[in-house]
Amino acid sequence: MRSRPRRHSMKPLMNRARRKPRRMPLVLRFAKGSVHGDIMIAVILHAIFAALIVYIDDFTPYTPHLPGSITSSLSIVVGLLLVFRNQSSYARFWSGQENLTTICTNIRNLTRTFLTCSYATNKPEPSEAERAETETAVYALLAVVYAVKNTLQWEWEHSVGAPDLEDSGSGSLKPELRALLGPQMSETHEFEGLGLPIQLTMSIEAYIKRSHDRGWFHSPQASQLSVQLNTMVAAFGTMETIRLTPIPVAYLIHTRQVLALYGGVLPFAFVESLQWWTVVIVSLITFTLYGIEAIAYQLEEPFGWDKADIKMDDVVEDLRIEVGVLLKEWQAGAPMFGRQEN
């Protein structure tokens, strides 16, 4: 009998690719990962209102009927609102993921170049201090993505949200980020208004300049490295824009009011032909429409901790593993870096 293949504890993109087998079909899931809890109150209220309209129609002399053409007109408006709402929210989510990938890609590229080109041909081997400087630059690259994550999530050691403004230096940083910062980064300036990702890119740019002066990078190469660093800063700026620019509250209010109006008109259009089935049909329609709007609400803020948000912790952890392996191999003089023994 053929034995089962042994499972390894480590693989590329291990955290992002982790998938648990689904024990239940998605159509039967009503709690974990769904938006049902967010919309249940609204659906119940519309069902109660629909039942009240049916009761009035059956047991009172009043006939609360409206022509079906009214709901047809409103449905066009509701459809347009929800389409725009979901498209704009998903665009924010996708842009956040795309720019995070841009930062990670440039960190990979810069790490590869720093470790492979940190010496000059026909010149003395780098000293221990210069090799330590290269390691510090690579750690600073890795610290950038940690700092981006912490900045966008307002995730500091003391609290999530507004930190203690009396604290200064690196004492407010998460331990995993503080461990990556070298002695020259022992003091940070977030509470003076300078973002840590920008401060880190300054030290990386300084390393590129010093390496160019030593002859490790030729001028076009150093220029290209600076371009990649600029691309990282631009991607971070786009992510900041998403984080700091919410959907206008006037649009959110109007969307909710239109949904409530549409759900309130439906019983008047259905009660004459459907009677008590009106309650069921109205519940299904409002469940669908409020659910679409709730999904858009989750996607518009992609840098949080909900299940629908970008898995920033997993992305950062996978990148940390990759860079850690590269540094270990570089320190051991692995052939992948192309160094020739003299």
From TrEMBL:
Its main location: membrane. The chain crosses the membrane at residues 66-84, 249-270, 276-297. It comes from Aureobasidium subglaciale (strain EXF-2481). It is found in: Membrane. This is Uncharacterized protein. GO terms for cellular component: membrane. It is a multi-pass membrane protein. The keyword Iron does not apply. Keywords: Ion transport, Membrane, Transmembrane, Transmembrane helix, Transport. One of its GO terms (molecular function) is chloride channel activity.
